[in-house]
Write a structure and sequence with these properties.
The structure holds two protein chains of two kinds.
Chain A: E1 17-28, E2 31-43, E3 48-52, H1 59-66, E4 74-79, E5 82-83, E6 91-94, H2 106-110, H3 112-116, H4 121-134, H5 150-162, E7 168-172, H6 180-197, E8 200-205, H7 208-214, E9 217-222, E10 227-233, H8 248-264
Parallel strand pairs in A: 3-8, 3-9, 6-7, 7-8
Antiparallel strand pairs in A: 1-2, 1-4, 4-5, 9-10
Helix pairs in contact in A: 7-8
Chain B: H1 2-7, H2 9-30, H3 41-50, H4 52-86, H5 88-102, H6 110-117, H7 121-145, H8 149-157, H9 162-199, H10 205-214, H11 218-246, H12 248-264
Helix pairs in contact in B: 3-11, 4-5, 4-7, 4-9, 6-7, 7-9, 9-10, 9-11, 10-11, 11-12
Classes of the chains: A alpha/beta, B mainly alpha.
C-alpha cells in the first residue's frame, strides 16, 4: 500500500517500542498453553497502532507485557531502548473497565498519579481541569464516579492516563463496554486528543471499524497461539470523521481485516462458507 | 394516614415500639400477671426512677467494658487482617487458628479470664474483645482481598508502592466490609461484656441482672434488660452513622441500588 496520508509512518522516529520474538507460555496442569508466539513489532514515536483480534488472541497479554505487568517467557520488549522489566516511565494506561476509585471525586481520580508520585497536587490541578475540559467534563470535577454515565467515567479514566503527559499510552479495549453511539463519540474524541500532541498509542480492540478508524497501522492477530497475522497500513487522511467509515477506501481496509478473520475461522459466513445456525 | 406513617421510617419504628409496650402493659393488666413473673412497662419505668443515677452508673460500667473490648478488637483485628492479607505464613497460621478458635463458644472462656486477669474490668474487656474480634478480622480480610486487581495494576504502572496500594486502594475498598463486621462485633462486644459480668462482677448491668434475679426482683432484671436494649441499639446506630460519614460513596450506592430495585418491582 502506498503511503499518501499526511503522517506516513516512515517519517516518524523509528522504533520507540521494539517487540522482538516475544512469546508467552502459561504452565497449566494440562500442559503448556501458548498465549503469544513470535511477536515482532516496531512502533514508531507518535504512532497510533491498533491491535485487532478476537478474544483469547493474546492482545491483552501483549499489552500487559508492554506495561511491565506481565513478562514474556521468550524474546524481549524494549521501550525507548530499555528492556521492560517493570512498568516503564511515562506510561498511561486505560483498561476496559474505567477503574475509577469510587470514594474519590472526578478530579481526585484524575490527580491520582500525581499523588502516587508524591508531587504537588496544586501544581497539577490546572492541567487536570484542562484535560477534563478537553474531554467535555467541565463542571463535573467535584462529582463522584457513581454520578456519571459509563462514557463519562471512561473519559475520566482517559484524563487520568493523560495527566502526567505519558510518552506511551496503552489502551486495553477502552470502549468495549460502552454502547455503540458512545463508542463512536469517544473514537472521535480520542482522535482529537491524540492529534493535539501525538502520543504513541497502543490500542487493543476487537472492533474492526474502531481499529481502522483510529490507527496509523492495524496489527491483526490470530488466536491460539496469539500471533501477528497481518499488519494493515491505514493511510486515510486525518482528522477523520465518522463518515469516513462509509468510504470505499475504508471498506477496502475493513474487508481485508474481515477476510483474515474469516480465513482464521473466527468469523463465519465468508465466501464458500455456508451460514449455519448452531443447533 | 397509615400510608404516611409507613413511608416515614423513624415514625414507623416509634409506632412499633410504643405499640409493643402498650400491648405488654395491657396484657399484664388484663391477665393479672404478677410482677415477679412479668412486670408491666410502667412498673419497670417506676423501678428505674427509684435510682436513675445508680442505673446510669451500671450502664456506664458496661458501656466502658464494651467500648474497650470493641476498640481493642478493632485495632488488633485491623492489624491482623492486614498481616493475613499480605503474608502467606500468617494466613496459614493465624487465620487458620482464628477460624478454628471461633468454633469454640468464647463465652465458655470467660471463667478462664477471671482466673488469669482477676475479677476487675480487665477480664470482662478480654471476653468482650475475644468475642468481637472474629467478625472484624474475617470481614476486613474479605474486604482487603476484594480490591480491584485492575486498580492495583494501575497503581503499579504509576510506580505506586505496596504501602500506597494498601492505603489508597485496599483499605478504602475494605471499609464497607469492615463496617459490616463492626456492626456485628459491636453487638457481640456487649454480649461479651455481659457474659464477663455474669461470671464474676460487682458492677455493671450483667451483675444487676444476676443479683436481682437471685432475689426475685424481676422488675429490676427487666429494667437492666431494657437499658441493655437501648444501649445495644444506640451503639449499632453509632456505627451506622460512622459508616455514612466515612464511606458515603458506599451508602449512596446502596440507596441508589435500593431505589432501582424498588422501581423495578
Amino acid at each position: 500500500m502506498i503511503a499518501v496520508g499526511p503522517l506516513p509512518s516512515n517519517t516518524k522516529d523509528q522504533s520507540f517500542v521494539q517487540i522482538r520474538k516475544a512469546g508467552k507460555t502459561y504452565r497449566s496442569k494440562r500442559g503448556d498453553v501458548a498465549a503469544l508466539k513470535d511477536i515482532n513489532l516496531d512502533i514508531a514515536m507518535s504512532e497510533f497502532v491498533s491491535v485487532l483480534g478476537p478474544s483469547g488472541c493474546g492482545k491483552s497479554t501483549l499489552l500487559r507485557c508492554l506495561a511491565g505487568l506481565d513478562h514474556p517467557t521468550s524474546g524481549e520488549i524494549l521501550i525507548g531502548g530499555q528492556k521492560v522489566h517493570s512498568p516503564p516511565d511515562g506510561l498511561g494506561v486505560v483498561f476496559q473497565r474505567d477503574v475509577l476509585l469510587e470514594w474519590r471525586t472526578v478530579i481526585e481520580n484524575v490527580l491520582l498519579p500525581v499523588e502516587v508520585n508524591r508531587m504537588n497536587r496544586r501544581e497539577w490541578e490546572p492541567k487536570a481541569l484542562q484535560l477534563l475540559d478537553l474531554l467535555g467534563l467541565r463542571g463535573f470535577e467535584g462529582r463522584h464516579p457513581w454520578e456519571l454515565s459509563g462514557g463519562m467515567r471512561q473519559r475520566v479514566s482517559i484524563c487520568r492516563a493523560l495527566l502526567m503527559n505519558p510518552t506511551l499510552l496503552l489502551m486495553d479495549e477502552p470502549f468495549g463496554a460502552l454502547d455503540a453511539m458512545t463508542r463512536d463519540d469517544l473514537n472521535v474524541e480520542l482522535q482529537r486528543v491524540w492529534m493535539a500532541d501525538e502520543k504513541t498509542v497502543f490500542f487493543v480492540t476487537h472492533s474492526i471499524t474502531e481499529a481502522i478508524f483510529l490507527a496509523d497501522r492495524v496489527v491483526v492477530m490470530s488466536p491460539s497461539p496469539g500471533q501477528i497475522a497481518d499488519i494493515i497500513n491505514v493511510d486515510l487522511p486525518r482528522p477523520r470523521d465518522l463518515a469516513i467509515r462509509e468510504t470505499p477506501e475504508f471498506g477496502l481496509l475493513s474487508r481485508r481485516a474481515r477476510t483474515l478473520f474469516q480465513e482464521m475461522g473466527v468469523i463465519r459466513g465468508g465466501r464458500g462458507d455456508k451460514l449455519r445456525v448452531a443447533s | 394516614m397509615m400510608q404516611n406513617i409507613a413511608s416515614n421510617r423513624p415514625a414507623m419504628i416509634a409506632a412499633v415500639i410504643v405499640g409493643f409496650f402498650l400491648v405488654w402493659e395491657l396484657a399484664c393488666d388484663l391477665l393479672h400477671v404478677p410482677n415477679y413473673f412479668l412486670p408491666p412497662p410502667s412498673a419497670i419505668f417506676k423501678e428505674f426512677l427509684t435510682a436513675p443515677d445508680w442505673y446510669l452508673q451500671q450502664c456506664l460500667y458496661t458501656l466502658l467494658t464494651t467500648m474497650l473490648g470493641f476498640g481493642a478488637a478493632f485495632a488488633v483485628g485491623l492489624i491482623a487482617a492486614i498481616g493475613i492479607t499480605y503474608s502467606k505464613i500468617l494466613e496459614n497460621t493465624l487465620y487458620t487458628l482464628l477460624v478454628s478458635l471461633n468454633s469454640v463458644p468464647k463465652i465458655a472462656l470467660a471463667p478462664l479470664f477471671i482466673i488469669w486477669l482477676g475479677t476487675g474490668v480487665n477480664s470482662k474487656v478480654a471476653v468482650s474483645f475475644l468475642i468481637a474480634l472474629f467478625s472484624i478480622v474475617i470481614d476486613t480480610v474479605l474486604g482487603l482481598r476484594s480490591a480491584d486487581p485492575d486498580a492495583l495494576d494501575l497503581l503499579k504502572t504509576m510506580h505506586g508502592s505496596p504501602m500506597q496500594a494498601l492505603i489508597k486502594i485496599r483499605i478504602p475498598t475494605a471499609l464497607p466490609h469492615m463496617f459490616a463486621g463492626m456492626k456485628i462485633s459491636i453487638s457481640l462486644a456487649l454480649v461479651g461484656a455481659i457474659a464477663g459480668e455474669f461470671v464474676a462482677s460487682q458492677e455493671g448491668l450483667g451483675w444487676v441482672i444476676l443479683s436481682a434475679q437471685g432475689m426475685f426482683q424481676t422488675t429490676r432484671v427487666f429494667a437492666a434488660i431494657i437499658l441493655l436494649g437501648v444501649m445495644g441499639t444506640v451503639l449499632f446506630f453509632l456505627v451506622d452513622i460512622a459508616e455514612r460519614l466515612v464511606c458515603p460513596w458506599h451508602v449512596s450506592h446502596r440507596t441508589a441500588e435500593a431505589k432501582a430495585m424498588a422501581q423495578a418491582h
